[in-house]
Design a protein that fits this description.
This protein is mainly alpha-helical and 556 residues long. The protein is built from 22 helices and 9 strands. Among the domains are: 211 residues, Alpha Horseshoe (Serine Threonine Protein Phosphatase 5, Tetratricopeptide repeat); 108 residues, no CATH class. Helix content is 40%, strand content 6%. The strands form 4 sheets. Strands 4-7-8 form a 3-stranded mixed beta sheet, with no helix packed on it. Strands 1-3 form a two-stranded antiparallel ribbon. A two-stranded antiparallel sheet has the order 2-9. A hairpin with an 8-residue loop joins strand 5 and strand 6. Helix 2 packs across helix 3 and helix 7 packs parallel to helix 9.
């Protein structure tokens, strides 16, 4: 199978093309110095140039998926994750005054996504003039560009509200920018996806792995309608429109839920039958950009504990994100029937540094001694008594001892194939859309459309898959048990750590109350205006008339 990631080997050429297009972005106006391109402006008007431009637009997805930037926007400042001990972005969790319009993550995402949008605009406008390219392939490339453009504007709309809606190629720097409306943006997003779906590959997963397919576009459009339904652009039929789109993804493309939840994110299995669409990374430093870095952020400080040292298998622990008590004690309360707690979090570390050591966090015994491969740390997930812990030959980390350095580590993103234990630039593909999420969105749409029995059946499909062997029946719920609270918890049981929680809480209109209730670090400072992120100050400063021409979001 020819993989899309291998086509990124053209990154030098594509990158130069992207730089050329960036010079013309209206919203960026960053380029006061001349940009010299080694590729002429007309290159995009050729078959290879059009494909390279689309490939270039895909690379801007890497500004969001698998980065600290994307995770800070979606993991921090929620009810299920809070900050660990390390990192300089804690204010995005605590909502202090340091979180402002000068935020580097906001500026970087804004600039990179608009680079991708303008590249898509160029592809869409110029494709008609390209000759020597099969018409079906040309239509597919245009459809891919519309998918990417819709994706970027959808993220922008959720984060910032109204932005500059540019749907034509900008060829020269300009300060003539303005904020559109959320209604106009949703209309443009939906139009792009409606037009893209017929011309994308009619399959669940492209043979050119990583390219958008009809299934990916339908999944995204279903989420757009689900989100629009609670926005200022809402319409009475949004949920009804989402339902057939999501059902189509489930029923028409040969995708399936894997039998074992643990296999979904198992390293080496990223191209599995549950993946609807993923963002491509590589193992080559020439084509990997900054890499998929999600592997470092969710890990506890295991490497300084007795019997342990850092290795590639257990990961490089940055201690950025730690689960809240609500996550461990409520979301993942069922450890008897539901396998997802055990398969989501690391519960045992095996010694890779043999020897005898004084204990640290587990003072039920003074010393521990390990041979290589012995259990060194065990996280039972409950308050094991001091007496029982004293009988163990290893340290036991109980919930009452969790802190900003020690907490359950997320398994999903660990990357044991890095070249060494310090490498930051991971190479695993980032699974952006998967079928379990499709099912959960469908259940949510059905529930709010009044189809409670159907929603229950849909959500039970996901729950049965999550069951320990022989526990499937115990995992099923009745229609009387299904409510919004259950939906919010079920999504996190399935999708924790997958860059969705902040956006979900905002969609449900409960971000403020949930942070105040469950996130101790963020509770005191979060305010109503935090349901939007600030417009980058650099954007406002570059606009004609500054703030009068491009206003800041209220409260920032």
């Amino acid at each position: 199978m020819k993989l899309f990631r291998n086509q990124i080997a053209k990154v030098a050429k594509v990158g130069i093309l992207s730089a050329f297009l960036l010079a013309g972005q209206s919203c960026e106006n960053v380029l006061e110095e001349d940009v010299i391109s080694l590729i002429g402006n007309n290159y995009i008007n050729t078959p290879s140039g059009l494909t390279d431009a689309v490939n270039s637009a895909y690379t801007t997805m890497r500004a969001w998926y698998g980065t600290e930037r994307g995770n800070n926007f979606t993991i921090f400042g929620t009810d299920t994750y809070t900050n660990g001990s390390d990192g300089s972005w804690k204010f995005m969790n605590t909502y202090t005054g340091d979180f402002d319009s000068q935020n580097g993550h906001i500026r970087e995402l804004w600039e990179e996504f608009y680079r991708g949008i303008n590249t898509c605009n160029a592809v869409i406008e110029r494709a008609a003039a390209v000759t020597g390219m099969p018409e079906a392939l040309k239509k597919q490339r245009v459809a891919e560009a519309k998918f990417i453009r819709a994706h970027h504007y959808f993220i922008f709309t959720q984060l910032f509200g109204a932005v500059d809606l540019r749907l034509t190629e900008t060829l020269a720097p300009t300060k003539e920018v303005s904020r559109s409306t959320v209604q106009a943006q949703y209309a443009a997003i939906i139009k792009d996806l409606d037009e893209a779906i017929p011309d994308l590959e009619n399959r669940g997963r492209s043979n050119d792995f990583g390219r958008a397919t009809r299934a990916a576009a339908q999944h995204l459009l279903g989420k757009v309608y689900l989100t629009k339904a609670t926005s200022e652009a809402k319409a009475a039929d949004d949920y009804q429109k989402a339902i057939p789109l999501l059902q189509s993804v489930i029923n028409n493309y040969g995708l399936r839920l894997l039998p074992d939840f643990a296999d979904v994110h198992r390293q080496g299995n990223e191209m599995n039958d549950e993946v609807v669409w993923s963002v491509q990374y590589t193992r080559s430093p020439l084509t990997n950009g900054g890499g998929n870095n999600a592997h470092v952020f969710f890990l506890m400080e295991y490497d300084t504990q007795a019997g342990m040292q850092r290795d590639t298998e257990n990961g490089r622990p940055f201690r950025r994100y730690r689960v809240t008590e609500y996550t461990t004690e409520v979301i993942f309360n069922d450890r008897v029937n539901d396998s997802r707690y055990k398969k989501t979090f690391v519960d045992v570390y095996f010694s890779n540094r043999p020897g005898s050591y004084s204990t640290s966090f587990d003072t039920s015994k003074p010393r521990v001694t390990f041979a290589r491969g012995d259990t060194a740390i065990f996280l039972p997930g409950f308050e094991m008594s001091v007496q029982e812990r004293a009988t163990k030959r290893y340290q036991v980390l109980v919930p009452s001892r969790y802190d900003e350095r020690l907490f359950p580590s997320l398994r999903k993103h660990i990357d044991g194939q890095r070249v060494d234990r310090t490498q930051f630039e991971g190479g695993r593909d980032y699974i952006a859309f998967r079928l379990a999420d499709t099912h959960l969105m469908l259940a949510e749409a059905q529930f709010f459309a009044g189809q409670v029995a159907a929603a229950t059946t849909t959500i039970n499909t996901v729950r049965r898959r999550a069951a320990f062997p022989g526990r499937q029946a115990a995992m099923e719920i009745t229609a009387g048990q299904l409510n919004l609270e259950f939906i919010t918890e079920e999504r996190e049981r399935e999708l924790t750590g997958e860059q969705m929680r902040w956006l979900d809480l905002k969609r449900w209109g409960i971000l403020i109350e949930r942070v105040q209730k469950y996130n101790k670090q963020g509770a005191a400072n979060i305010k109503p205006h935090h349901v939007l992120r600030p417009i980058p100050q650099t954007q406002i400063d570059r606009a004609e008339g500054a703030a009068a021409g491009f206003s800041q979001n209220i409260g920032w």
